């Protein structure tokens, strides 16, 4: 798949997520996707989620845990079948009412027009502190 097509797919993924169009977001994921969110047990959505059911579970945990104030992808970088996105977000942790701001990096691997792997990097210490009462 062309690098420009992979870039467009990932850009569309962020557009769908940002607009809350979860069915369209999910349509861009491979049925056997592996998605890894960093962190320890203090962050309820940390871990590796596999398959569309796993991604649905992860999104459900996030929606019950966070009120996303901003979620901004700033830079998209492509290299063959990998698209890396640098950005930042601000969120309120629903159980504690605490807010955090963090920069993040998402690395997406694509095959046949679908995201097959997502690896997320962010400041998990800052996020974990916001989850502590």
Would you kindly provide a written description of the structure presented here, covering whatever features stand out?
With 133 residues, the chain is an alpha+beta fold. It has helices at 3-19, 22-27, 51-65, 124-131, and strands at 29-37, 47-50, 66-79, 82-93, 99-111, 114-122. It has one domain (3-131): Nuclear Transport Factor 2, Chain: A (Roll), CATH 3.10.450. 35% of the residues lie in helices and 46% in strands. A hairpin with a 5-residue loop joins strand 4 and strand 5. It is globular, with a radius of gyration of 14 Å.
The topology string of helices and strands comes to: HHEEHEEEEH
Distance between the termini: 47 Å
Q: Radius of gyration in whole Å, from Cα?
A: 14 Å
Q: Detail the poorly predicted runs.
A: none
How much helix is in the residues? 25-40%
Oligomer: single chain
Give, in spatial order, the strands making up the sheet with the most strands: 2-1-6-5-4-3
CATH architecture: Roll
Specify the structural class: alpha+beta
CATH topology: Nuclear Transport Factor 2, Chain: A
Q: Averaging pLDDT over every residue, what do you get?
A: 95
Structural features:
alpha+beta; six-stranded mixed β-sheet; 133 residues
Spell out the blueprint of helices and strands.
Layout lengths: L2 H17 L2 H6 L1 E9 L9 E4 H15 E14 L2 E12 L5 E13 L2 E9 L1 H8 L2
Parallel strand pairs: 1-6
Antiparallel strand pairs: 1-2, 3-4, 4-5, 5-6
